[in-house]
Structure formats: C-alpha cells, structure tokens
Amino acid sequence: MNRVYLVLICLCCAFCARSQVVAVKTNVLYDATTTFNLGAEVAFDKHLSLDISGNYNPWTLPDDKSIKHWLVQPELRYWLHERFNGHFLGVHALYADYDVAGKTLLNVMKSDYAYEGNAYGGGISYGYQLYLSPHWNIEFTAGVGYVRFKYDKTPFPAGQEAAGSYRNDYFGPTKLGISIMYIIK
Fold this sequence. Notes:
Layout: H1 2-16, E1 21-27, H2 28-32, E2 36-43, E3 48-57, E4 66-79, E5 86-101, E6 113-131, E7 136-155, E8 164-184
Antiparallel strand pairs: 1-2, 1-8, 2-3, 3-4, 4-5, 5-6, 6-7, 7-8
C-alpha cells in the first residue's frame, strides 16, 4: 500500500513540476583552433541559468610546440529579458591544466620556455543570444577577470635543466565565445 502512495505522489510531483530548458553548444572560436569543446546550459527560471563548458586540446604541433590543455568554466547567468533570448550578465569561474611549449600566451608564457601547470580564477561577463528558431541560437559572450597560473618552467626546446616553479597573476580577458546552440525543450 505504501508503494502505491509513493507512486501517486511521484506522479503528482512530475505533473506539477515546471520543466527546465536545456541547451547544448559549441564555441566556434575553439573549434577554429582544433580544441574540442562542448557546453551545456540549464535554465532554472525566467532570468537565471547555469552554463558549464569544457575544452580539451591534446595536440602537439610541429617542432614539439604545444598548447595542450583541458579547461572547465562554469557560469551563473542573469538574463535581462528572458532566458536564451537577448542580453545576459554572468559570473564565471575557471580551472585548467596545461602543457604549453614554444608559444607566447597572454604575456604570461614566452615561446622560449615550456610551461606545465594549472590555472584557476574567475570573472564577470556580458553576452547576447540571437534567436534563430525555436531550437537554434547563436551566442556572443566576452568576460574579464583574474587568473592565477601555477607552473613549472623549463627552457624550450627540451633537454635543458628546469628553471623552477612559479606563480603568475593575470588580469584581463578570461572568456570569449561565439557559440552555436541547440535548445532542447
């Protein structure tokens, strides 16, 4: 008898629950650099959503140069009009592991060294989603913030002694995207 009541309560809750809207996306700027990326966004109500994106680049370039990394970047968004339509403001965090060699990046990493470490930080962002159809949007977003890089630094090319372990603080752009989205309702 208790099982019957439990099933009835679950069915009532299922009919009464408000549906959440979910979207999946890919950032074409990362696609252009052959970095695998996938994002998902879940709307909680008319004005709030949670976006989580992940990126992975396993490639070694010619001459042993690399920008290998994986990155996860969650973001809480406030929609000024309604979810998945128009302008939004966001607060994001990030964490990455990386192995960069022979490339200059963000005025933190120079091309004559190899860097292996992690980065974490956060920031604020602004974005706009352009409605294309009931299931398709294009998203434009940019953000600024702080990142702490922790890494081991080795002269590049390899074969020389390690230069040591370092930390570096970065203030500047932390998010940039043009994403194609598919909205699942």
